[in-house]
Amino acid sequence: MTTKRRQLRDGIMEIFDTYGALCTISHETPMEEMIADLAIEILAKKPVKKQQPQQHNRELFHLARAIGEVCQMGYEINKGRLFAEAKRLAKAENPTPTPQLVRECYGPGKSWYTDDWRGRENGKPPTPGQIRSTWLQLAGAPQKPKRIVLK
User: pTM of the prediction?
Assistant: First the structure.
């Protein structure tokens, strides 16, 4: 039985012979052994998987749940759409969207229903697309001081 190193060295020598590659370098170890050692080191290393942090997925889950809650959409039925919108909304900055902030701006009786004409006139909850399109206006704008009208 041959070892991996010997198999690699024989394979490298076969490639050198097939393609007529001439390798003569004055080192203590022959070229094919140096390449075999390097190949063994490369193969021994486990491939580094680019993992998405679990925290990011968890945040998207909670953001999707909050969007579904304020839009009055069933989470299980609309899971794909809600996650897609949460992923798009998560890219926003100033302020960064959080489930609490989504609920504060788009929940019943909040900014959507008082400051945006669609929520004020119809009294209907926002759609996920409307949340994304109005995020900067409702969540990013500084809070307006409310006028008190005395009668």
Answer: 0.58
